[in-house]
Amino acid sequence: MDKKQVKKVLEILHQNYPDAECELNYSTPFELMVATILSAQCTDVRVNKVTAELFKEYNKPEDYLSLSESELGEKIRSTGFYRNKSRHILESARILYNEYGSELPQTREELMKLPGVGRKTANVILSNAFKKNAIAVDTHVFRVSNRIGIVNESDVFKTELSLMEQIDESSWSLSHNLLVLHGRRVCKARNPLCEECDVKKYCLYYNGTV
Fold it and tell me: Which residues, in sequence order, are CB contacts of 125 under 8 Å at separation 6+?
């Protein structure tokens, strides 16, 4: 797919999702970090229910320092994989409190040194909390961008790099949110709603070429 077609696809998606933004609820970069860690293998709806209570008492790194892994684990149990998530959140909170004055760093390299913060999570934080140009490739972005034919890559990292080439830098963050929403609502992993899709005329999957 050439860049002109990619731009058209994104324009159509923007028309369909004019208010596209991160669907995790947060009020600070740290809260977004916690919410994004919790979102692994869990829906944003569930995470938002958990953080609605969690953030009432624990919304800064220092708030977590008195919690044990098991105590935090009980509070986030319903998000799944709660033991690992609890450990990562507490370890990151300690590092942020001790080394960064409880403020999240604003570079991908520094963010990725925090336990539980991989490249995708770092890009989510940079894009949404710090308003920097970044494309976070989660399962939806990977599936939709390759299925439609915006890119043709076999892994997440190569998909991110290809998307950065195919999309104007000023549109990276918006494009991430558009692709996520389209993946959740129309271009689903199983039984995609192709007949309802407004970009099907451009889609390689729908037209049988992938």
Answer: 29, 32, 33, 36, 104, 111, 117
Q: Which of 196, 135, 180, 181 minimizes the C-alpha distance to 161?
A: 135
Q: Indicate which residue of 2, 49, 138, 158 is catalytic.
A: 138
Yes or no: say if 59 and 30 are a contact pair by the CB < 8 Å rule. Answer: yes
- Cα–Cα distance list, 175 to 10, 127, 167, 170 (Å): 7, 11, 8, 9
- Would you call 52 exposed, middle or buried from its count of C-beta atoms within 10 A (0-12, 13-18, 19+)? exposed
138 is catalytic: yes
Q: What confidence tens digit (pLDDT) does each residue in 71-90 have?
A: 999 999 999 999 999 999 99
Q: Please tell me the total number of residues recorded for the chain in this structure.
A: 210
Residue 55 pLDDT > 70:
yes
- pLDDT higher than threshold 90 for residue 28: yes
Q: Which of 120, 188, 200, 201 is catalytic?
A: 120
Residue 9 pLDDT > 80: yes
Residue 2 annotated to the active site: no
Residue 210 has pLDDT above 70, yes or no: no
What would the mean pLDDT of 128-151 be, rounded to a whole number? Answer: 96
Q: How far is CA 111 from CA 39, 56, 60, 116, in A?
A: 17, 24, 16, 10
